[in-house]
Amino acid sequence: MTTxxxxxxxxxxxxxxCGSYRADLPLWRELxxxxxGPLLDLGCGSGRVAxxxxxxxHEVTGVDSERAxxxxxxxxxxxxxxxxxxxDARSLALGRRFGLVMAPMQVAQLMGGVGGRARLLDAAHRHxxxxxxxxxxLADPFEELPPEEALLPLxxxxxxxxWVLSSQPIAVRSEEHGVAVDRVRQAVSPDGELTExxxxxxxxxxxxxxxxxxxADRGFEALPPRRVEATADHVGSAVVVLRRR
Length: 245
Known about the structure:
Elements (H helix, E strand, L loop, with lengths): L5 H14 L5 H9 L5 E4 L5 H8 L4 E5 L2 H10 L5 E5 L11 E6 L10 H13 L1 E12 L16 E5 L2 E12 L3 E11 L5 E11 L3 H9 L3 E9 L8 E8 L1
Parallel strand pairs: 1-2, 1-4, 2-3, 4-5
Antiparallel strand pairs: 5-11, 6-7, 7-8, 8-9, 10-11
């Protein structure tokens, strides 16, 4: 049976589940155009946001803890003003400051609760110019519905080197401090062999007022929040915008 290399598979699944999302790009472009200086993309993945902004003339540093994803971004950024760093956003120490720090999609809800978010906010504060902005997207898989009534997005499908990858959300469940999103990943090899696995993503429950209150204790002031509307494939999100004091 043919196989995809583990790093390539990591990138392929990320691209399948996240790479096609574009609904938030106009907002990141607007925020980037409204500040001076370089940009910092936390949880950059394979470069969905960083590459778009770099193509528009911005200098962007992308940070992710997954080596394979950072490697994919580095390869895709040829000729663009993109730097990359393999690091945990909660303990970041780049020795540089930025005009805008971005945490797209649900990055801030993967920090492991209040303590992890405090470290994330402190790291962002260290890396921002005075008056610089931190923009954090918060996705709520429930929207305003109970989990059992939530309408699940469509399957994400991608073809990679003859493989067909399909990732289908199948359940959204309440947890003590957040929500769990269950996905079934199916991979069909070029030989026609099917493999399947269940993947669960745990998201902290976090509202914009809660994040704004946490940030106020760590040197930020809240600016008017923004909104990215839901699409057929992705839930909507609120974007908390904070200014470094």
